[in-house]
Structures are given as C-alpha cells and as structure tokens.
C-alpha cells in the first residue's frame, strides 16, 4: 500500500479544473530516494545464560562486533540511524559498532527481538517451538518487516543508509519477505555472527539483495554461527 496509486483518491476532483490528470497526481506520490538497509546479526554470545540479561557477548563476540563496526565505517557511507533489538546480545553488539560510527543515532525496539517467525518448510528435527510461539513471534516479526522494510517516503529527498542490529531468524525472514520468496524457506539460509546483509529498496519498490551474511572482512578463526 505504498505505491502511488494506493496513496491517492481517484475520485477527488480539483474545484477549478475538474479531475486532475492522473499522471501529474501520481508524480506527487512517487518516492525519489533509494533506501539501503544493512541487517547485522549480533555477535557470539554466552549460550549458558538462562535469562536474556545473562546472555552477554563472549570475548570473541566483542572482537567480532569491533570487526563489523570497522567494516561498516570503512564503507564511507553517511549512515542515518542504527535500529537495534532490545535483547542484550544485540544491544551490546550495537554499543561496540556505534563506537566506529560516532554521531549516528540509535533506536531500540522490541519488534526486532529474536523469535520463531513462521513454521519452516521443510521442518527440522532439532528445533520445534510450541505452535503458539509462531503466532506470537510471527505477528511481531511480520510487524517489524512492514514497519521497517519499504520504499522511501515521498518526502525523502536523498538516499538513506540504515543499520538494523538484530537476530538470525528475524533477518532470514525479512530477506524472504523483501524478495517475495516463500517465507517458510527462511531456515534454509545460515548467517554468521556479526555478518552484514545488504538490501536495496528502489523508489519504484523493487528490492535487490546485494550481500547475504557477509563476514569476508573477518579472519577465518573469528567466524562463528552460534
């Protein structure tokens, strides 16, 4: 519902000239800028922690976040904001990355918290959440997709570069939805800790995936998928 035709009232008339030309009306609602979305998976964390607050980054995880922050800074882009999951491991990853991107505002959200987005197809034997979890988490993660992944607002004049620090399940689901692939296939992808996934959303709504789970900037002995 963000394409120009969905944003105008075709029955509305101009008092002086009658029905406006459709083409000229559409132009006022066409996006002009491209959005660059960088989806960052959090770094390695302590799997032994029982509660979220105990699942802090490991020493290696902190190294990974430093490497990711350095990589993002090296791109030479003017990042507009960092939106991050409110879970501990994503928050700590964001704190480290943001040191390499001074001045970029940070926004925390519960929408990007980890969860079970949709029952995977084919199913896997080692991971079987309760059915109710798909309904609860799935609705939230779908809301995150609809809220954050869309073409630029018509008022946006320049291209934007935004960072989202969150979780593997969330990123994989978002990639499937953004590319209009069956979302049930989200578990067929694998993402390393601290990896960078780059989506591009053009003004006409077309989406391109430039990188998926890139960790080529990390030494091999620093790469993990926990």
From TrEMBL:
Compartments reported by the entry: Mitochondrion outer membrane
Keywords: Hydrolase, Membrane, Mitochondrion, Mitochondrion outer membrane, Necrosis
E.C. number(s) listed in UniProt: 3.1.3.16
Main subcellular location: mitochondrion
Keyword RNA-binding: no
Listed Pfam families: His_Phos_1 (PF00300)
Membrane spanning stretches: none
Gene Ontology molecular function terms on file: protein serine/threonine phosphatase activity
Keyword hit for Acetylation: no
Reactions the enzyme catalyzes: O-phospho-L-seryl-[protein] + H2O = L-seryl-[protein] + phosphate; O-phospho-L-threonyl-[protein] + H2O = L-threonyl-[protein] + phosphate
GO biological process: positive regulation of mitochondrial fission; programmed cell death
Family membership noted in the UniProt record: Belongs to the phosphoglycerate mutase family. BPG-dependent PGAM subfamily.
Name the record gives this protein: Serine/threonine-protein phosphatase PGAM5, mitochondrial
């Amino acid at each position: 519902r963000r394409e120009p035709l969905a944003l105008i009232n075709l029955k509305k008339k101009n008092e002086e000239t009658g029905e406006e030309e459709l083409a000229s009306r559409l132009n006022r609602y066409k996006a002009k800028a491209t959005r660059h979305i960088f989806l960052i998976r959090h770094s390695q964390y302590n799997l032994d922690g029982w509660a979220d607050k105990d699942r802090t980054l490991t020493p290696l995880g902190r190294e990974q976040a430093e490497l990711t922050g350095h990589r993002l800074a090296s791109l030479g882009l003017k990042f507009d904001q960092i939106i991050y999951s409110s879970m501990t491991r994503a928050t700590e990853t964001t704190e480290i990355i943001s040191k390499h991107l001074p001045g970029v505002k940070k926004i925390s959200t519960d929408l990007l918290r980890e969860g079970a987005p949709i029952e995977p197809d084919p199913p896997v034997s080692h991971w079987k959440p309760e059915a109710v979890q798909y309904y609860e988490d799935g609705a939230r993660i779908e809301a995150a997709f609809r809220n954050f992944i869309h073409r630029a607002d018509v008022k946006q004049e320049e291209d934007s570069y935004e960072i989202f620090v969150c979780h593997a399940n969330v990123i994989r689901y978002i990639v499937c939805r953004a590319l209009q692939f069956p979302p049930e296939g989200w578990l067929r992808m694998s993402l390393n800790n601290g990896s960078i996934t780059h989506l591009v959303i053009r003004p006409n709504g077309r989406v391109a995936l430039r990188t998926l789970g890139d960790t080529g900037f990390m030494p091999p002995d620093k790469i993990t998928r926990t």
